Amino acid sequence: MKIDRRTLALMIASLCGTCAVSQAQDDATLLSLVESSQSRSIDHALARSPSPSATVLASATGSLSDKETPSNSGNISDSSSDSSTDEQSAWSEEATSGSLVGYKSGSGRSTTPCESIPSASCGTTTSVDNSNCGSGTGWLDFDTLLWWGRGLTNAPLVTGGANTTDLPTNPLLGGSDNPVGTDLMFGLRADLGFWLDDCQNYGVGGRAWGILSDSQEKIITNGGNSTGIQFFNAANFGETTFLRVNNGNAIPPTTGTIGVLSDVDVFSGELYLRSRLLGDRVNRTDLLTGYTFLRLDSEYQLRANILPANVTTLDRFTAYNTFHGGHLGLANSMSSGRFGFSLSGKVALGNMESTTFGFGNATPAPPAPILGLFAQPSNVGRITRNNFTFIPEMNAKMRYRLGRADLGVGYSLVVLPDVAMAPSQIDQYIDAPFGAMSVSPHPKFNTEAYFLHGLDLGLSFRF
User: CA Rg, the chain, in Å?
Assistant: First the structure.
């Protein structure tokens, strides 16, 4: 059965009055009806229309109004030809992409920076391509640590003289003027974690780091001049005296060396949970909580070798500190373009177990039960204490993004307020050096504040 143009227009107008012609499904239905009419003029009008809507049908039939006169029913309007090709392309891309917000580039992706727009499923209506935004299901951070420790000022003082006959009074190493343990230390730090939800509100992770000192013995010869180790003679009411290694007045003259070794090693590991408090997935502030383990070991060794008698004395003191506890802190991360900045701080609370140990040795063994100079039978052995303490930590880092990887440089500070360090366990008051049985030095157990700080050079990945 053949249907004239006016009847077709009235049927289509009736359909368009009861549906949302702006939807893509309605457009497809209307186009199907038009194709069934086998009208080339209508197809031509549809091809030239800027938008496949009811306007297309109006231009094809002349009018959608039921008041249209028969004289106009056969005319097809070509007003749509005034639209530019660019407008048609823009409308077409917007219709096919299904988005009515923002300008769309030729790839169909928003040009809005990815840092400011999270995923549509995470609380917004705009979805963007995050392939280069650094976000993902997890993170992996590596850092090379270039740190320094607080100098230890309680080590025995090694002194030197201007010639072979003068008493050695010039400080060379140790004491408050030349503390030990000030050399640069090297270490590594790794942090691995995963997000528990697509919106990155909750995550779990683990971090481990360690740092080692040089631990090489420093040999002091003072160029052949007099060299000594300072201590206090308790038998002479604290009068300062010296154990002289090089002494030109001795018959025969004595020569020799003094070796000092100071070593500090730190290891730490933690497991933590993080939850987002403020911001989006990129610019955010997180709450950190979890478990922390830390181990701080220190050693101080003093060795004196006297020739031609070939007598060697050795004093070694060690201290071990082991911490177990929980931590609480905040971590903030901000980004602008390829640059980013992160700042975190936390405090660990728990138990610190500290153990000290003294050891001495002399070769050849003297007739008296003497072990070393500062380590003698009156003070050698092991001492252990437990103490509740806290450990603050702060980290700051600048980052530069390279796709899903970041290059970073930062600064870290770790404070240990109450730990035992090896040089502080030495009692420098001696009543009978290399003589009969002594009652001094006494066993000591001292704690002090120690801190580590320095630069971090890192590489981060988001996967």
Answer: 41
CA angle (180, 184, 188) in 5-degree steps: 130
Position 101 pLDDT exceeds 50: no
Strands (E) across 151-283 are located at 158-160, 170-173, 185-195, 202-212, 218-220, 227-233, 239-244, 255-279
Q: 418: domain CATH number?
A: 2.40.128.90
Print the domain residue range for 54: 5-94
pTM: 0.71
Question: Which distant-in-sequence residues (6+ apart) come within 8 Å of 395 by Cβ?
Answer: 342, 343, 344, 345, 410, 411, 412, 413, 456
Which among 198, 191, 205, 192 has a CA at the least distance from the CA of 136? 198
Q: Which of 76, 94, 112 finishes a domain? A: 94
Residue entry with tokens 């080590």: 155
In angstroms, the CA 339 to CA 398 distance is: 7
What secondary structure does DSSP assign to 115-175, as a single string?
GG---GGGT-S-----TTTT-SSEEEEEEEEEEEEPPB--SPPEEE-SSSSS---EEEEBT
Q: How far apart are CA 331 and CA 196, in angstroms?
A: 18
Read out DSSP for 10-71? HHHHHHHTTS-TTSHHHHHHHHHHHHHTT-HHHHHHHHH-SSSSHHHHHHHHS-S-TT--HH
Segment 9-40, tens digit of pLDDT: 667 666 555 444 444 444 454 445 445 544 44
Q: Could you give the number of structural domains in the chain?
A: 2
The tokens for 220 are 């002091």
Residue at token pair 């976000």: 135
Tokens representing residue 269 in the block: 């590991």
CA 230 from chain center: how many Å? Answer: 44
At 364 the three-state DSSP class reads coil
Q: Is residue 433 part of a domain?
A: yes
For residue range 422-435, what is the model confidence (pLDDT) as tens digits? Answer: 999 999 888 765 55
Backbone angles phi, psi at 34, to 5 degrees: -65, -40
